[in-house]
Amino acid sequence: MSKVREGISESKMGNSDTKYHDRSGPHESPFFANNKNAAKPSLQNLKAASEGALFMAPDNVAIQEKLSKKAGALSANSSRLEFVFYKVFLCLFFLTYACFRYFQYTVNKIKIHVLNIAYSPSNTPQLIRQDVLKLSKLPKRLAAILEIKSEGDVGGGVSGLINDGSDLVAWSVSAGIKHLTLYDFDGYLKKNVHEFREGVHHKLSKYYDPSNVPKFAVRVPQWNSVYYNSSSTEFNGTSTKKVAIEISLLSNRDGRETIVDLTRTMAELCTNNEMKLADVTMKLIDSELLQLVGPEPDLLLYFGPRLDLQGFPPWHIRLTEFYWEEDNDQVTYSVFIRGLKTYSACKVNVGK
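RE: above sequence
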């Protein structure tokens, strides 16, 4: 009896287990898993169902498209704002620089005007001599770069260029400078050397007595010619006349082109065995350029708003002192004398 009862009780327990497993088997929805009351789902099941609904593939693609459109619109707006910001910044920067440059230009012009009033030689060599006697040293050789102006400007054209060069000659003679080099890029002074000689003679006659005009020589290295004020004599070679000043007229042809021609000539001589390669030295090049162009100036004046050498012979400015006045575009005595003052105060160190 006891065994039968045990068997019955075991069969009841087996039936109850089967019913439980059938209710919680794989056919039951996960929405009702671990939930005794199917009509009342739990919070965890609601959360799982909402997450599944939110992250379905079709809805996710649509959301991504909307987000990408919004991001593109935001980036476009930010790009426009950035462009406007930098444009406004650049406009303010240029406006500030323009105001500063205009103020600087006005100050420089006023300063130059005051200096022109303070330093006025009035065609008097004695006044120039007094200004020069205050200086500790003077350049033995002076050079100046001149620019031709348009015909419509005051002091423009070739006549204006000749007048500027004549002024420099008169100031140099009064200051006691023996060598003057005048450089203009296109060589107008060379082409009009006779008119320039007459202009210099006329200018010196204003500074000195017409019957006692200092003698001068105008030298054109490119043509190997020398012109004098006392006569129309023109000859090749070195002058033996004693003159107050020697004026050399240079152009861009006397710069790099002369060095190229000299190099080509030396190369041809070496090719034809007329010159040894060992004979080509720095000393030989210096001596040849000295004969072709002239000596190196101690001071170079530029009468322009900013320094522009304009092809001035580069071999001849290795130890040259430069001077120019910012925002100046006229050949004036104030720039001339201030350049001499700057040179007298400078110290030139020559290496070994």
